[in-house]
Each structure stands twice: as C-alpha cells, then as structure tokens.
Amino acid sequence: MASLAGLAMLFASGGVTAAEPIDVSAKPIPRFSRDSASDRFGDLDFVGGFEFWSRDGRLKGVSAIRLIDGGERFLAVTDTGNWFAGRIERDASDRPTGFGDAVIAPLLGPDGQPMRGKIAADAESLSIDGDRVFVGFERDHRIYAYENPRAPFGETAREIPLPLPRHEWRTNRGIETIATAPAKSPLAGARIAIAERSIDPDGNLFAAIFDGAANGVFKVRKDADWDASDGAFLPGGDLLLLERRYQGFMGGLGIRIRRIAGASIRPGALVDGPVLMEADLSDEIDNMEGLDVWIDAEGGTRLTLVSDDNGSIFQRNLLLEFRLADQPAPIN
Whose CA is closest to 311, among 2, 48, 75, 80? Predict the structure, then answer.
C-alpha cells in the first residue's frame, strides 16, 4: 500500500506537488435496490458502492471520473474547478468500500492559475487518452488538455478548439461528455463530445467527433425528459451514455444508461440505442453525473458511476459499481 509520502512523490509535477491529502469518509452500500434483494438491473449486475463525504469543503460537485490501473486508482474533476484522485479500496469480495490515499488540487488554466468563480471553474467532463487528459467545461464553453493522467496536478492547461461552434453550446447545458474511443474500434481512437441539453431544431442533442480521421457533427436522439450526463466506450467500440431525468420534487429523479453502436457514430448521423438499465429513487441513486468503463482482472467489463451532490446537505456523493452481464436481458 502506498504511503502518503510516496503519493506526494507520485503526484509531483515538475518537482513540486500541487496536490494535498484529503480525508474522505465512506459508508458502504450493500444493495442497489431498496425494494429487492436482486443484484440484476437490466443488463447490469450490481457489484457494490459507497456514500462518501469529507469535512474539507473542497470535496463537492464531483462531475466526471476515470479509472486507471485496472480500476485500482481514479482521477476525477469537480464542477468547482478541482482535481480529485486516489485509490479505490475494496473488501475481500472485491466490492468498493471507500477511497484511500485521496488528494485534491486546483485545475489550472492556460495562465497557470486556479480558476476563479463557478462560470470559469465548471468542469463537467473528463477523458484520458494515453498521456493526455481532456477536461470539458460548460457555461464558459471550452476544452483543456493536460499532460500526465497519473498526476496532472500543477500542469498548465492547453486550450484546444471546440468541436462545435460556440453558439451551439447552450448556457449551463454545454459539454457534458468527452470520451475517447478504443484504437481498435469503428472510431479508431477518435474523441467525441456530447452536450447535456444543447439541442437542434428537432430536439436532438448536438455532438461531435474530433481528433479523428473523420471529424464532424452528429446528433444523439433525445427523449424529452432526459439529459446526457456522461459517456464511456466499451472495449468493442459501442458507447454507453449515462442520462439523468429530474421532474421536480414530486416527479422525482431517475437515471438510465443507453448503448449506442460505435459503427453508427459518424458525421451527419442521428444515433440512438437501447436502454441497458434504468433506476429511480427506489434505488440507491442521486444526481449521477460521472460514468466510466474499465476491465477487471478476470476480463469482466465494469461500470463506475459517481454523483454530484451540488454542495447540498440534501444530496449525497455516491460511487456505484456494476458489471456488464454476460447474458443480457431479453428485449421486450
């Protein structure tokens, strides 16, 4: 197990670390459903999860997460302009139980300074591509690239061109997803960006392929009640899209995950796909904003989801983990 001193060395950037250790408490979530003992939810099996919190007020608003080292470590961003990283602790049954060796650090802009204010600091999406990290921001719509996904702390951002004209990204409804396709997939390692609720005249979500062989705009079919929250690619190249529904206090909160064929994602296309899993407040969910896909030691495909508590005492920070079932549920 790495020591905090060792982690300070690991997370050093240019010989000076910008990351500070942070104490994070956790409470395991043994069951996903409050009404059933089943672990199967659509095409997913629930592995485990936990609620987490800290006395440090910087830990709030976790909006995107990526797993590295076979799910052992994670890198996340918050919508208040911070990196959050560390190790995922597990029990003897390989269920996630909490965070270890956690650190937090400010995201730096192209000027090398922390971002000030919600408009500038509203990081909502995250992707890792080799030795580069891409972070998408809404409100002040932009994408920043950083070096060193293991330790981007202290790295100065490099702004890259937006894959869509700025006027098509709606205020506070902009880039909610950045995902990098596998190299051996129909998109051949290209990145995509998907809007939360920036829609065209037909009500479909704006999206774009960039840094690939065939760049361009495509659309994602949008159901009226659902907004995109995050997305990640399966090893074969299909895209899993996390969506969120909020219909006020009486209407409640829901989430779902759609599977979109990678071969259908191309410039000019309108893409759609079946729902793999849907959940509501009868299940252990909150404002789920982050999704990643990774492969475990047995070769199984796992999904990790995180929630954004909006800094509210009425919401929870959650990490949930599922395994993609070997035998999908039949389509009705």
Answer: 80
Closest alpha carbon to 133 in 114, 110, 117, 157: 157
What pTM was estimated for this model as a whole? Answer: 0.91
Question: Of 117, 81, 80, 103, nearest to 5 (Cα)?
Answer: 103
Q: Helix (H, G, I), strand (E, B), or coil: what is residue 124?
A: strand
Largest Cα–Cα distance in the chain?
57
Structure tokens at 166: 């700025």
The CA angle 126-292-259, to the nearest 5 degrees, is: 110
Q: Is 28 left (phi over 0), alpha (psi -120 to 50) or beta?
A: beta
Distance CA 169, CA 142 (A): 10
Residue 248: what pLDDT?
66
* φ/ψ (deg, to 5) at 120: -80, -30
The DSSP secondary-structure symbol of 224 reads T
Encoded tokens for 15: 């010989």
Tell me which residue of 163, 143, 285 sits closest to 212, measured CA to CA: 163
Q: What is the mean pLDDT of each run of 10 residues along the chain (332 residues)?
A: 41 55 97 90 97 97 96 96 97 96 97 92 94 93 93 95 73 81 96 89 93 90 93 97 83 92 97 97 95 96 96 94 76 42
Assess contact for 106 and 17: CB atoms under 8 A: no
The residue whose two tokens read 């010989």 is: 15
